[in-house]
Amino acid sequence: MAILELILQVILGITSLLLTLLILLHKGRGGGLSDMFGGGMTSALGSSGLAERNLNRFTIVLALVWFVTIVGLGLITKFQVI
To answer: From the CB of residue 15, how many other CB atoms can be counted at a distance below 10 Å?
Structure first.
């Protein structure tokens, strides 16, 4: 059981870092703090390219892996025999 917990902890660490990186790579949608200070001078084209769609898909899949890892670690912690 300890090996599985260690593997899940490593997966959690890697997915957390990758998820942070992927979220930061997304294009801003506007309406944030930069708009309050005059930084919102971007074009409002609603279409996203193929790279943006693939980034969205990869981010969602990685977020699901992250979520399953969290649930798995929680179940191991709850049912762990001391």
So the answer is: 19
3-state secondary structure of 32: coil
Rounded-to-integer distance, Cα 81 and Cα 76, Å? 9
- Distance between CA 42 and CA 46 in Å, rounded? 12
Residue among 79, 75, 76 at smallest CA distance from 2: 76
**What's the chain's Rg over C-alpha atoms?**
18
How far is it, in rounded angstroms, from Cα 77 to Cα 5?
9
Q: Using an 8 Å Cβ cutoff, are 55 and 26 in contact?
A: yes
- The pTM of this model reads 0.74
Q: Give per-residue pLDDT as tens, 18-57.
A: 999 999 988 777 655 555 566 555 555 555 688 889 999 9
